[in-house]
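Retro notes, item 3 of 5
We never archived the inputs for the tetradecanoyl-COA complex last cycle. Fixing that now. Sequence and ligand:
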Amino acid sequence: MSSATTSASGGRPVLAPPPDATEPVRHPDAPAPGTPLGPHYDQCFGCGDDQPYGLHLAVRAGEGVGVTAEFTVRPAHQGAPGLAHGGVLASALDETLGSLNWLRRVIAVTGRLESDFLRPVPVGATLHLSARCTAVAGRKMYASAEGRIGGPQGPVAVRAQALFVEVGVSHFTSNGRPEEIRAAMSDPDQVKVVRAFEVGP
Ligand SMILES: CCCCCCCCCCCCCC(=O)SCCNC(=O)CCNC(=O)[C@H](O)C(C)(C)COP(=O)(O)OP(=O)(O)OC[C@H]1O[C@@H](n2cnc3c(N)ncnc32)[C@H](O)[C@@H]1OP(=O)(O)O
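Structure as it came back at the time:
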């Protein structure tokens, strides 16, 4: 196995939780299963309503620390003629996985995302996504996701494993552009402000 996919100690794959990892805990105030989470930021490429070429991913809370989502591939998302671009599919997986943090009420960003592309996804197809948090170790959250085509029980077209790392609000306020931060903080939808600046996706 290459050094890119193994840890420095013991040869454990970097996306395998360490032995002291714990079960993920759903926050008591997490939305009930089936509740749409809505966009966390209107300009988000993954879920924002104000991104004309964005994915407009519709994520719903699932059981435990799990979510489901749908993404319909549009012509703007092509790589090969008539087929979704792999980077766009990885974005859909990333956004779905990132939404898990809202159920834990933790601010976290993607540290590592490993994707498998198993079947081509045509324009017009709807990708039925599901993601779940598998373990937590300190600031690290381990999670996996898959996307099926032809229906929620259809064949798996894409899947991913990911590591998210908990960060403070300063991750955004120190690194993001001030104009976007100001605009997002003045959003009259205070739930969105809390998600963007106190919790994340
Ligand atoms: C303005 C609006 C705001 C909106 C907010 C909503 C969010 C929206 C997002 C929505 C979109 C969806 C989501 C998105 O797209 S989020 C956007 C994409 N992600 C990023 O931009 C993150 C960029 N990276 C960083 O900022 C830093 O590298 C982070 C914060 C990740 C870590 O740097 P930091 O200095 O803080 O911590 P550390 O280096 O001590 O690491 C801590 C631990 O983690 C382990 N580790 C780290 N990296 C990796 C790796 N690659 N593989 C394996 N392990 C890794 C590391 O070994 C260590 O483990 P241990 O030694 O403790 O055992």
